[in-house]
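Figure 3 (text version): structure tokens given as input.
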């Protein structure tokens, strides 16, 4: 069985005369091992299979390796050398090498042709230490898992921690500690591992000429996009959809972005009147047409929260503003604001929590721009809470839950509505860049990624660079270039851009992907070639001028 250290057969010398050569150099086992050693290896494989493990053809598992997983798949022609340790739920593809002293523990998945240097550790689990009153070894384990693609080389003494994905065809230098995802075809090294170079040139990147052509196409075709969205005297996000406030404000954003004028379907005063009529006089909030304002609502209602932004910015682009301040948000005292932020479900609903802060920050911005006497004190209270509650290790606000998507989106929403609008610098951007680059790898690997997923990444990378200097600049540029390529490739002539690949082109998708393209191009120093710059909800400039600089 696994873990047995020796049998009479394992002491038989191979043709080199060294009795342990077959255990420490298993890549040559079937060529150099003695007949007795080969017979013993067949018994070893049979024993492993009898325990339910899936072992392919021509594999070698040294008698000097500790192999006691809960589940094991070992592909054809793969081998496990002496002093290796396999435990947990392990899947290893064909033609892989687990060399001397390698630890593969927890939930680990690797593709084919993965070469693991001596004394490396792939740790698909982690100890929790959340409770300071309980000894750490008594606290539960967590296992997200380690995933490794095809044709990967991990050097000697590499450590890969739980939750990391390593892309195919990549190389990890000796002694590296891999704490974030590694993209395909990358060469990384260091502690923590950083991108050194690419093994091959990435696909052709978007040039200034192609950016200019995209901007020209968008300007020439936006009229058709807006006209197709105008049905029965109302804007609809896409054909067949119901009329919404968001569709109307996206139409205003697109027309301003690409033509510098209101959408032609209504005269400017009519746009203003229609949007202002949707505001509730008592609360200052905005909901869809026909909604009775007596209903019970939640401050986490993403529709009401977002309408503070989209209607407010649309009215600003039209040269107007809200009739009433968003009192539900702006009339809270500084202490009440802090209490509200404290009770938001940051660990489990980071998206919704960030959306509310987005709306709250924007409401305070509108109040400050109109001279609300208490706006400044409220802004300071919100900034103080934000600085005090940031996770220094990730640069995010909120828990990670089952992944990075929710906390990165929640952080984007929080930053956009407060720190970015107010021009506040809080430091700590290196950790944020590390985390967002890891999320960027996930977005680029996800064929179903939406405009929201891509915009979260490029906006936060842009904001971090504008407030905290350049960190991991080659990887930031690589991520921005890939997202920019994707943004331009999704344009459907005459119809705009789908929000996500399985949806039709829409006003929302078009506006968000155009903003995404601008931020990605600006990270590369080429946004001027597009010929447009967001001025509304995705504007890069702060709406309030502050001199506040804090260290998180």
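Below: residues designed for each position.
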């Amino acid at each position: 069985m696994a873990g047995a250290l020796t049998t009479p057969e394992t002491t038989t010398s191979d043709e080199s005369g060294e009795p342990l050569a077959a255990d420490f150099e298993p890549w040559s086992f079937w060529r150099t091992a003695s007949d007795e050693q080969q017979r013993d290896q067949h018994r070893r494989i049979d024993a492993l299979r009898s325990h339910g493990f899936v072992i392919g053809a021509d594999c070698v598992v040294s008698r000097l390796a500790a192999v006691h997983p809960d589940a094991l798949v070992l592909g054809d022609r793969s081998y496990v050398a002496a002093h290796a340790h396999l435990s947990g739920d392990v899947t290893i593809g064909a033609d892989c090498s687990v060399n001397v002293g390698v630890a593969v523990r927890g939930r680990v998945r690797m593709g084919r042709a993965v070469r693991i240097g001596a004394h490396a550790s792939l740790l698909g689990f982690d100890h929790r230490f959340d409770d300071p009153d309980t000894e750490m070894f008594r606290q539960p384990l967590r296992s997200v898992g380690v995933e490794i693609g095809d044709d990967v080389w991990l050097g000697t003494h590499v450590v890969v921690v739980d939750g990391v994905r390593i892309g195919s065809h990549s190389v990890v230098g000796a002694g590296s500690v891999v704490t974030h995802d590694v993209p395909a075809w990358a060469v990384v090294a260091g502690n923590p591992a950083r991108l050194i170079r690419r093994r091959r040139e990435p696909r052709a990147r978007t040039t200034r000429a192609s950016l200019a052509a995209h901007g020209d196409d968008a300007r020439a075709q936006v009229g058709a996009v807006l006209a197709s969205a105008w049905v029965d005297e109302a804007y609809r996000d896409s054909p067949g959809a119901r009329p919404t406030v968001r569709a109307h404000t996206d139409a205003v954003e697109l027309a301003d972005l690409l033509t510098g004028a209101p959408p032609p379907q209504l005269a400017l005063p009519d746009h203003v009147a229609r949007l202002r009529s949707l505001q509730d006089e008592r609360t200052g909030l905005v909901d869809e047409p026909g909604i009775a304002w007596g209903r019970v609502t939640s401050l986490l209602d993403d529709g009401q929260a977002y309408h503070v932004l989209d209607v407010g910015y649309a009215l600003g682009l039209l040269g107007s503003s809200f009739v009433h301040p968003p009192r539900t948000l702006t009339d809270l005292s500084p202490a009440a604001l802090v209490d509200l932020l404290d009770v938001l479900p940051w660990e489990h609903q980071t998206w919704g929590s960030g959306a509310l802060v987005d709306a709250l920050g924007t409401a305070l911005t509108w109040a400050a721009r109109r001279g609300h006497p208490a706006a400044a004190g409220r802004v300071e209270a919100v900034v103080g809470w934000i600085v005090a509650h940031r996770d220094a290790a990730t640069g995010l606000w909120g828990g990670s839950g089952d992944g990075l998507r929710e906390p990165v989106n929640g952080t984007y929403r929080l930053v956009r509505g407060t720190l970015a609008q107010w021009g506040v610098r809080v430091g700590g951007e290196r950790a944020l860049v590390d985390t967002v680059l890891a999320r960027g790898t996930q977005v680029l690997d996800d064929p179903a990624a939406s405009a929201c997923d891509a915009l979260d990444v490029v906006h936060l990378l842009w904001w971090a660079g504008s407030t905290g200097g350049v960190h991991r600049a080659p990887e930031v540029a690589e991520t921005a270039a890939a997202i920019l390529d994707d943004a331009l490739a999704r344009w459907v002539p005459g119809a705009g851009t789908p929000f996500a690949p399985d949806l039709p082109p829409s006003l929302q998708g078009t506006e968000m992907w155009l903003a995404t393209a601008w931020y990605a191009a600006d990270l590369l120093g080429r946004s001027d070639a597009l010929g447009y710059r967001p001025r509304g909800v995705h504007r890069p400039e702060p709406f309030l001028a502050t001199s506040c600089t804090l260290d998180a």
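The first helix runs from residue 21 to 24.
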